[in-house]
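Hi D.,

Good news: the full-assembly prediction came through. Inputs first.
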Amino acid sequence: MKMLSSLNLTLWALGAIALCLLIGMILAQVPLSSALVASMNKGLVLDWLIDAVSAGAGPVALAVWFAALCASVGLLVLNLGACTYTRLWPRLMHAKRVHTVLLFMVHALMIVILLGHLSQMTMGFKDESMRLLPGQSVELPDGLSLTLDTATFVDDHSLLNLTYRQGRRAQTTTAFHRELNTAGISLWRDGRKLESGEMRILEPLQIEGLRLTLSDFYLDKSNGSVGAIIAVSGNPLTEVFFAAYLAWIVVYVLLAAMGCRAGETGEMTPSEV
Amino acid sequence: MHVNSANHRNLTWYVPLLGCLGLAIAMPPVSLDLGGMDLVRLENLLYWAFFALSVITSILAGLNKDRAYKPASVATLALGFGLLGVISLRIGRPPLSGAYESICLMAAVLSFLSWRAGRCRISNDLALPAWGFGAAALILSLLTWVPRQVNPDWFVYQFGWSRAFFLCRGMAMAFLLFSALATLAWPRGDIKADHRRELTARSRRMLLLGTALFLVGEVCGFYWCLTWRGDYWLWNRNFMESTMIFILASAALHLPPALAAKTKVLRIAYSVPGLLATGAYLVHQVTEAFLS
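Then the structure:
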């Protein structure tokens, strides 16, 4: 347990994560593998992983990288848990000073956040690339189906089908009218309309436990009509995860401020200078 | 030896900086009629004055010319924030992203931190402000060959979450770089132990505050991404790079006692997050400027 909660292990785990991230950054940039990395965004990572294992050499190599990253994070969670339990919890019991409480909280919340990351990758439903034209429907879990009723795009069609970099330059506040460009959708189950609504970019809808996000419009060049790109996701823990994340940031900021005010030197020893 | 540590620990110094951050996030679209005043020309003038004075102030601090340094540091600070103000008035929003906007933001915050370090100096030594103003001048020098153009007014920039993300990130980079400078700014010769201790403590404080600011920016960015793309996380270089910065800062703040006892290790650990983060950030901004 002593070894599991040691700062040496913390450094090894953080080093392993940093190395995996460095490799990931390279993979995301290299043309040969960038499309494979991008494919991880389309749905749940767990589904991607299951598919990747049975696919060709490229996806398998990426899956190995991802497994190494997960193993490194897993090691950090173990280390964090052991450290919180064997070092910070006894400190908290003996001295209930604000600093000690915050130090305990920041570590405990970090564990919650890392587990939250895991839940977001493995639980619920996610499809980020639904391209629908008006009148088209798509099947969702639990017998639900989503229909795009209308797609209203009032601006110049040259603003459509752009890359991220092109869009950032062209979709200015004067050229692109976010409030006027809308997508009307309806959600159905067994032929019965459950709910309908109007979506805008940066204004997601929450219906039946699903988060519906209009991420962009696109131009169908075959018939010249405008469609909508909709991301659908559903995870019961998203709000919990964000609440934990916010709490962690608040505690971290307080701890940093307290550390600065007190001239706190943390793990540093007097011999360090 | 006089170590002005208590003054340096006083967090009220940061209130004006946080006030500016709040104003920038909440700034409504501005459309001013300035009677034909050429703001681009004024901006250019301010940029060159800010750049030149950063160099001069850094030299004055390096030579420990205290009498000349004091007004020069105040003027540099005023020029830095004046430049940010004029950019904001001209484009109707705060400077957020892109090489020109982010470098001006970073340099202004760096000059604030350097000015503050001069007010809370150790043993009348101005090495840290010299490094700080020098670093501000160095990053401003990039704009002598990178186009000094603001980014087009992307509709996303009107949202508080995206503004907070860009502003916090730019400011955090200045804090992290300053943290690195505090460990690198050790004067030559046999400096006393408490001088070294104070510089190391300052570096750690800046690392803590920089990481905190960076994380506030990250959570704003996560929320922006969630409302825009349907997920708070994307598997791409930018997201992994951001996580890497946090991981490196965390590693530096969790050194085992045996390693923390070694001066060289501590200096490397405290300087690596700032240098790598700023390096990656600037490379990203500069390459984007030429790609677009």
